[in-house]
Design a protein that fits this description.
By secondary structure, the protein is of the alpha+beta class. 36% of the residues lie in helices and 21% in strands. It has 20 helices and 20 strands. α11 crosses α13, α11 packs parallel to α15 and α16 packs antiparallel against α17. It starts with 18 loop residues before the first helix and ends in a 13-residue tail after the last strand. The structure holds adenosine monophosphate. The site of adenosine monophosphate has 17 residues, from β1, β9, β15 and β16.
Length: 592
């Protein structure tokens, strides 16, 4: 019999699907009821084991493990504050700087510092913590969606290129680390968690071959598919776009039982050989559905038994909700978890809710969490159990791997509680102006890119008077649009089209490595576009803002726009459009 779960979970429709699920739900209940004591224990454990680290000794913690001493002695830091120590570890210093446990690898965050991904030190046991959070997702989902053990999940999961630091440690994204771990590769069979994608396809570093094999498997197993997903909404849309571009070849492979010769990766070929059998009927079905110009509801048409989409559509991903609704015929979208390279934070206990209502419950066993009330000084941090409903906070983290009072940069709003555990709405990431997928471009980076590009205009006696930007995600892949108002001092030598095209590329060269990797390796961001607008356009923009109540004295040109009337105004003043003619430079190696 199942263990009885004295459940305060939000109106689950069913009882736990298995004894294993009941245990997981019980665990969630225990953690969320005892938030404060679990947090106290976690801090004690972290400080106790790391007492002899250089970092804690530097602040004379003297072995103390209580919150009061910790808060009074340890400063709140940003990545830049601890970068010298991180660089030492990267260069091969094996002394216990942040953690007495050896640093097993670096996780490369999509957040950047000076143009390169931030390097997050991690320790081996963190994999267990990540695995633990993953193990809680399906038990919650099974409460809301019955029968997921009767079919499979079509998940588009990818690894990215790995690199090594000068000291020899691996540096790779957290999901690349997880998919390459035994935790993932040799996971025990779980009928609720069967994927259509074979490990060989997920672990293929070539993004085209990986996507091709995963899509092919998804099509072959179409009748079994019960849920379709990717980590982020942008990834799922990329998969749909891929199908648009490749369905003919995919249908050919299915019809003939042969594999596209562009798939050269030996493990992928070998595993596809076992899966692929001639199936002209299925090939015809795929052809009929994809041949149609209208791709509305394509997900439901090709995978008719899909019950929901498993994708994150909160935060920057919310921009993709309408497009996903279009392609899926309004299937529910489940945002199941909230995580980062630094730490996996928590999960959504009501995963079938509307995207606008998603809240994440931070699990107090994952790390020690503090919260900086929005706009307050760093002396006012609040504990996880003490945050207040409807207030906004910045998340501060102390991890087992040794990050101490680290500013993640996420702004969260408390919406309520599950037992004693606060539930948070993801509001935004600090300082992010433009984002298409995992790229995060801030105002300073955009400014720097504009300055570099405008150097090309100098010889034409032309300068950029004003600019703003827009993340255009109407088409897949999305791309950055930069609006420029130019001052052409001598129209006889005004910059020609090819100069402005090169300005686009120059801007791309100046953007951070996550952006350039998405452009080059993943093809998940399209060429950057510059739209030159008529002289006086930005003054009109100001007039418009003032007519809506902005103060003339305090008016600043918005460096990113999305409000429809402003977009309409800008677009109606466009005199020419220019696109990056080439790919920017990118290799897995870091520039610094
Ligand atoms: P990374 O360090 O590259 O893994 O990126 C982690 C960041 O992605 C987080 O700090 C958030 O800003 C964002 N993120 C992760 N999960 C979610 C989510 N469920 N909703 C919104 N943003 C998220």
């Amino acid at each position: 019999m199942f263990m009885a779960v004295e459940s305060t979970l939000p109106t689950p429709v069913r009882t736990p699907a298995s004894e294993k699920d009941a245990k997981a739900l019980q665990f969630i209940e225990e953690m969320t009821k005892n938030v404060d004591s679990v947090q106290e224990r976690v801090l004690r454990e972290i400080l106790g084991r790391n007492a002899e680290t250089e970092y804690l000794k530097r602040f004379s913690l003297n072995g103390a493990t209580d919150r009061e001493t910790f808060k009074s002695r340890i400063p709140v830091v940003t990545y830049e504050d601890i970068q010298p120590e991180i660089q030492r570890i990267a260069n091969g210093d094996k002394s216990p700087i942040f953690s007495v446990h050896p640093i097993s690898e670096f996780l490369t965050s999509s957040g950047t510092s000076a143009g390169e991904r931030k390097l997050m030190p991690t320790i081996h046991e963190e994999l267990d913590r990540r695995q633990l959070l993953y193990s809680l997702l399906m038990p919650v989902m099974n409460l809301y969606v019955p029968g997921l053990d009767k079919g499979k999940g079509l998940y588009f999961l990818f690894v990215k290129a790995e690199t090594k630091t000068p000291g020899g440690l691996l540096a790779r994204p957290v999901l690349t680390s997880y998919y390459n771990s035994d935790h993932f590769k040799t996971r025990p069979y779980d009928p609720f968690n069967v994927y259509t994608s074979p490990n060989e396809a997920i672990l293929c570093v070539d993004s085209f071959q990986s996507m091709y094999a995963q899509m092919l498997c998804g099509l072959i197993m179409r009748d079994e598919v019960r849920r379709v997903g990717a980590v982020f909404a942008s990834g799922l849309l990329r998969a749909i776009h891929f199908l648009q571009n490749n369905w003919k070849q995919l249908a050919h492979d299915i019809a003939t039982g042969t594999l596209n010769p562009k798939i050269t990766d030996a493990p992928v070929r070998e595993c596809m050989r076992k899966i692929l059998k001639p199936n002209p009927e299925l090939a015809q079905l795929v052809t009929i559905e994809c041949y149609e110009e209208n791709w509305e509801c394509i997900i439901k048409r090709i995978w008719p038994r899909t019950k929901y989409l498993d994708v994150i559509v909160t935060g920057a991903m919310a921009q993709y909700i309408p497009t996903l609704e279009y392609y899926s015929g309004c299937l529910p979208m489940a945002c199941t978890m909230y995580a980062s390279s630094e730490c996996y934070f928590g999960l959504n206990l009501n995963p079938m809710c509307k995207p606008s209502e998603v809240t994440y419950t931070i699990m107090p066993n994952m790390a020690y969490f503090e919260f900086l009330p929005h706009g307050s000084s760093t002396s006012c941090l609040v504990d996880l159990a003490d945050v207040e409903v409807s207030k906004e906070y910045e998340l501060i983290l102390t991890t087992y791997a040794g990050l101490c009072r680290y500013r993640v940069g996420d702004i969260l709003r408390v919406t309520g509680f599950h037992n004693a555990a606060p539930q948070f709405r993801f509001i935004r990431r600090k300082n992010v102006l433009l984002s298409i997928e995992s790229d995060k471009t801030d105002e300073a980076e955009l400014q720097n890119a504009i300055e570099n590009a405008s150097l090309l205009l100098k010889e034409f006696n032309t300068s950029v008077v004003e600019y703003t930007s827009y993340a255009d995600t109407k088409q897949i892949p999305g791309h950055y649009v930069i609006y420029w108002e130019l001052l052409v001092k001598d129209s006889a030598i005004a910059p020609a089209d090819d100069v402005l095209n090169r300005c686009c590329l120059q801007m791309e060269e100046s953007l951070n490595s996550v952006y350039r990797q998405s452009r080059v390796a993943d093809n998940s961001i399209g060429p950057l576009e510059i739209r030159v607008v008529e002289n006086g356009t930005f003054e009109e923009l100001m007039d418009y803002a003032i007519s809506r109540g902005a103060s003339i004295n305090q008016y600043k040109v918005p460096r990113c726009v999305s409000f429809t009337p402003i977009m309409e105004l800008l677009n109606s003043r466009v005199v020419s459009k220019h696109f990056s003619p080439d790919l920017p430079h990118w290799t897995p190696e870091r520039r610094r």
